[in-house]
Amino acid sequence: MARIDVPEDSPFGPDHLPYGVCAPRAGERGGARVCTRLGDVVVDLSLALDDPDFANASLDAFLARGVRHWRDTRDRLRALVDGAIPDAAVHPLAEMDSLLPIRIGDYVDFYASIDHATNLGLLFRPDSEPLLPNWRYLPVGYHGRAGTVVVSGTDIRRPRGQRRTDSGAVDFGPSRRLDIEAELGFVIGVGSALGTSIATGEFADHVFGVALVDDWSARDIQAWEYQPLGPFLGKSFATSMAAWITPLSALESARIPLPDQHPEPLPYLRETENWGLDIAISVSWNGTLVSTPPYARMYWSPAQMLAHLTVNGAATRTGDLYASGTVSGPDPSERGSFIELSWGGSAPIALNGEQRTFLEDGDEVVITATAPGTGGSRIGLGEVRGRVLPAHER
């Protein structure tokens, strides 16, 4: 039996205990299993808790069992890590590969930051109101492509598509304005039947936890295609998700009221609990910190997003993912995308002695985040990392 000593300042201490799926690196024996992370080790939960739901390459079987089982399992896990853990269940993080932790059936991306929406409105419609008339009435969103959600650390191939040139001509080729979007994703544990809806007060009965997301965006492809039906090829080529899902129960101390909403939301969007989240996000570009978006500024809560997603009777399923949209704040240093940081390319960013606007081949972006933990510590969400590869040539 092993006791795991974790430094008090570790972002992966006993107040956190996120869930992921790990497998031994190539050449080692053993298959993928559901694990938790404690400091710099991972714990195989199929062995540590003797639970067959964890002997899988996905969290889905565990998630489908519901909120009472999630809480009971967390209590068992807390008791386990405070004592001794079977030696066979403990592995150094460095010797394991992290896999996509859920089987994603559907993916929805929202547009819930008032600062991000205002910035893009000013960029794209400088002579009009930055927010469109519906923005304060409903959480605007679109359906993304679940099949191109990849786990953190996966290289991102530069997309190709149609682009409109400065002269007004239309050509085809690799995106010249490749961007990132720092977001927070929400993982559905218990779905809802077709024709039903989920109330804001039922949010925690359906959503298991959160994970950082980077919704890669080809701004030039997007700008030409998005009217009148919205994003398509400019967004569908890749979305990166953290390997570790932080359960909502680890974020109790991070819950805060939303900013004031005007006008008052319609009845189905009114909240009965506080589901604003005090999460501090950091964006690093080639090793340089370039932005610190504050999730606490988000206008729409994840409970409101889920209520709107299902109010028309749309079904949800275990493993579905929906994300907040770009997280940005009012200060220029808090913008969660490079189109905002560079103000549409007109204000280059100083990066390692260069003046940069959008991503070049070989660039790497790392998104991290921290939040208040339940025991007075500060927990760290699993990172999202991705490196840009050149476009495929045909």
Structure commentary:
The chain has 394 residues and is α+β, with helices and mostly antiparallel strands. It folds into 2 domains: 19-99, Fumarylacetoacetase, N-terminal domain (SH3 type barrels), CATH 2.30.30; 107-389, Fumarylacetoacetate hydrolase, domain 2 (Alpha-Beta Complex). The protein contains 9 helices and 26 strands. It has helices at 45-48, 60-63, 67-81, 114-124, 203-206, 219-225, 233-236, 302-310, 338-341; strands spanning 19-24, 33-38, 41-44, 90-92, 96-99, 107-110, 141-143, 149-151, 156-157, 160-164, 170-174, 178-179, 182-188, 207-215, 217-218, 239-241, 246-247, 255-256, 276-277, 280-285, 288-291, 321-323, 349-351, 354-356, 364-372, 378-389. Strands 6, 7, 8, 13, 14, 16, 17 and 22 form an 8-stranded mixed beta sheet that branches. The chain has a 5-stranded antiparallel beta sheet with strand order 4-3-2-1-5. The protein has a 5-stranded mixed beta sheet with strand order 9-26-25-20-21, with no helix packed on it. A hairpin with a 5-residue loop joins strand 25 and strand 26. The protein is globular. The protein starts with 18 loop residues before the first strand and ends in a 5-residue tail after the last strand. The mean pLDDT is 95.
